[in-house]
Amino acid sequence: MKEALKNRTKIFAHNCIKITGQFPNNYLANHIKGQLIRCSTSVAANYRATCIAQSKASFISKISIVIEEVDESNFWIEFALDENLIQRESVECILKASSELTAIFMASRKTASINRQ
Predict the structure, then answer these.
(1) What residue range is the signal peptide (predicted)?
(2) CATH for the stretch 2-116
């Protein structure tokens, strides 16, 4: 499961980076590009960190960061849609992936928190 999620989060980051290539070249679009690239790659990098967490508390802390970063990625994609920087059809699969990843990581955090007590 860990390896599958490592791969899935890396693919999510790659897809987010690729989609920024469709953005126009203006100040707002460039800002959103940078933010989306930063937070989507953080999802993958921080998930890897959860896989080597040294304690339950560390795992919960790191998975919480992953949840925040995937949610932020979703925010920037939605913002780009609101500003008509990209077409919805081109990001449907990324939005679906961010929703699925959020659900997976929320469930992992909940399980870890219950097992911690």
Answers:
(1) none
(2) 1.20.1440.60
Task: Look at residue 116 in the predicted model and tell me its pLDDT.
Answer: 64
Q: How buried is residue 43: exposed, middle or buried, by Cβ count under 10 Å (0-12/13-18/19+)?
A: buried
How far apart CA 103 and CA 108 sit, in angstroms, is 9
For the chain, which residues score pLDDT lower than 50?
none
Q: What is the pLDDT of residue 1?
A: 79
Q: What is the pTM of this model?
A: 0.93
Sequence spans of domains, the chain: 2-116
* Ramachandran sector of residue 84 (left: φ over 0; alpha: ψ -120 to 50; beta: rest): left
The per-residue pLDDT for 115 is 75
Q: How far apart are CA 97 and CA 103, in angstroms?
A: 10
Phi first, then psi: give them for residue 116, nearest 5 degrees.
-75, -30
